[in-house]
UniProtKB/TrEMBL annotation:
The active site is at residues 99, 319, 486. Its EC number is 3.4.21.-. The lineage of its organism: Bacteria, Pseudomonadati, Bacteroidota, Bacteroidia, Bacteroidales. This is Peptidase, S8/S53 family. Pfam families: Peptidase_S8.
Length: 541
């Protein structure tokens, strides 16, 4: 890596020298030679950078290893230790995948899917659990009749701003100074990026008045044919008003953006069209209905959780498929390096994550579904910074704790200190104490240190797992790689499932303690699967 860096700097130095030397050549030869050398050098730099990019052949499955250059989670050594000791899985562990869904037709995952043997596909609830046709799991983001599946939801901040906008759209800061809800509304408006848009709309509205004033003024000029007047000719128009120069200046940027040959009437029409579209978007904040309401449940009632449908394969299920593959994929012989960590696990698919921020109600419902239907480990590669119903989710996590279910959550990918910024779910009780069945996972790099993209926090993040160039499977048995805490979390979930399968007496609380206490001391908290299985065996002797 150091040699590559020096080579890159060396090429840039050559580039600078050659550019300097070329200035001494004659003009025509200078142009040709500069193009040739610039292209050659940039091509060389590009090739060198590509050479530094990890390839599947070398890096697929690196997260299972631990060595001098690739410091993964030491999973291969853990499996070797178990085999040497004659320790085999003693019970089937179901892992709940709370995510975007899954491609159930992916061959590498078909054998790993949890099967509700009391249920059959269709509209009938054979086992009486309240979810008709839940053979492999449930979809909390679809309508009961199957006519709509929600795939995109935007940010929670925007949804909260949208909810409060009708109430405070005309409010003044001074009148609402003592109102905490108004302060929250302003916070959401800023976080959602709406402030800039509203200011831009206000400025555009003022600009439209200027344009209309100019249009009216032009029509008073006897020798100006406004129907055919080109924008380039505006400079030659005699000023019809005292504000003409200022008005032209106000529209200068838009006039310069217009295509060559545009006439004044066409320009006016274009500006009116763009302004109407902005207005429609702002009115949509108030009038466009949140499609999540189509599910028909009471979003404020955690007990109203029997909604959705059994369809798990929907648009945007790549994320969930990839996460599932890290845990239990069984690829063909040509892709053995992409195999899941613990293929013996059974994957219960619970769809509750759209593109954007998940809804608290759906996460709470999904946790309870997974717990009630036998999951002993739940993977949640999800999270957000605003949670209007945080208590609802925390109560579901507490329910999982009472049922001895371990929950593993991704820490997020914004490289923020989440000790100082709340990251949801917080998994805390009314006194602010973290539930002992909840483990939050950050991402590590090849060296076993905190990845530059991962959130962190001495208290908020419990353990790190590899989160860069992690190989897995996508819908249609396409093999690829990804990065982030979303792919680090299922590595921990896999090891947790392995422990709960080989050592079934271990509780969720104990498994968390083992995983956290067995991290490598010479790292930022990197998971050490071998040390974890040794500790588990020692406890269970």
């Amino acid at each position: 890596m150091f040699q590559s860096s020096y080579f890159y700097l060396f090429l840039l130095r050559i580039l600078y020298i050659n550019q300097t030397r070329l200035h001494t050549l004659d003009k025509n030869r200078n142009i040709v030679m500069r193009k040739y050398i610039l292209c050659s050098l940039f091509a060389a730099v590009a090739l060198q950078l590509c050479a530094q990019t990890p390839s599947y052949a070398r890096y697929a499955g690196w997260h299972k290893l631990y060595g001098d250059t690739l410091r993964g989670a030491n999973i291969a050594a853990a499996l070797q230790y178990l085999a040497k000791q004659g320790i085999k899985p003693r019970r089937t562990v179901v892992v709940g995948i709370l995510d975007s869904g899954i491609d159930t037709a992916t061959v590498a995952l078909k054998d790993a899917l949890w099967v509700n043997r009391k249920e059959r596909p269709g509209r009938k609830d054979c086992d009486g659990n309240g979810y008709a046709g839940d053979v492999h799991g449930w979809n909390f983001l679809g309508t009961a009749d199957g006519t709509f599946d929600m795939t995109s939801a935007g940010t929670e901040e925007y949804r909260e701003f949208k909810r409060l906008y009708p109430r405070y759209k005309h409010a003044s800061d001074s009148a609402e100074a003592a109102n905490p809800e108004y302060a929250y509304y302003r916070q959401m408006r800023k976080a959602a990026g709406i402030n800039r848009y509203l200011l831009y709309y206000k400025a555009t509205k003022a600009k439209m008045k200027v344009m209309e004033r100019m249009d009216s003024a032009l029509k008073t000029l006897p020798n100006v044919h406004t129907d055919t007047l080109r924008l380039a000719s505006l400079a030659r128009v005699p000023a019809p008003t005292t504000t003409w120069a200022d008005d032209c200046q106000a529209l200068l940027v838009d006039l310069m953006k217009a295509k060559e040959g545009t006439t004044w009437p066409a320009f006016v029409a274009q500006q009116h069209s763009a302004f109407r579209l902005m207005g429609q978007r702002i009115r949509g904040i108030e009038h466009d209905v949140d499609k999540r309401l189509l599910m028909g449940d009471d979003m404020g009632d955690a007990a109203d959780r029997f909604y959705g449908n059994a369809r798990l394969t929907v648009e945007g299920c790549d994320h969930g498929t990839f996460v599932a593959g890290i845990i239990a994929a069984k690829p063909d012989a040509a892709h053995r390096a992409y195999a899941g960590i613990f293929p013996e696990a059974r994957l219960m698919i619970v769809r509750c994550v759209p593109d954007g921020d998940e809804y608290d109600k759906d996460v709470a419902s999904a946790i309870r579904y997974a717990v009630d239907n036998g999951a002993k480990v739940i993977n949640m590669s999800l999270g957000k910074y605003t949670s209007p119903q945080a208590d609802m989710v925390n109560r579901a996590i507490a329910y999982a704790a009472r049922k001895d279910v371990l929950i593993v959550q991704a820490a997020g990918n914004h490289h923020r200190d989440i000790d100082s910024v709340a990251y949801y779910p917080t998994a805390t009780d009314a006194q602010g104490r973290r539930f002992d069945n909840f483990i939050r996972v950050g991402a590590s790099d090849f060296a076993g240190h905190l990845s530059s993209l991962s959130n962190y926090g001495r208290n908020a993040v419990d353990v790190l797992a590899p989160g860069e160039y992690i190989a897995s499977v996508l819908p249609g048995d396409v093999y690829d790689f990804s990065q982030g805490t979303s792919v680090a979390a299922p590595i921990v979930s896999s090891v947790a499932a392995l422990l709960r399968s080989c050592f079934p007496k271990l509780s969720a609380k104990t498994v968390k303690a083992i995983l956290v206490q067995s991290v490598r001391k010479d790292s930022d908290g990197l998971l050490d699967a071998e040390k974890a299985v040794r500790a588990a065996r020692a406890l269970c002797r």
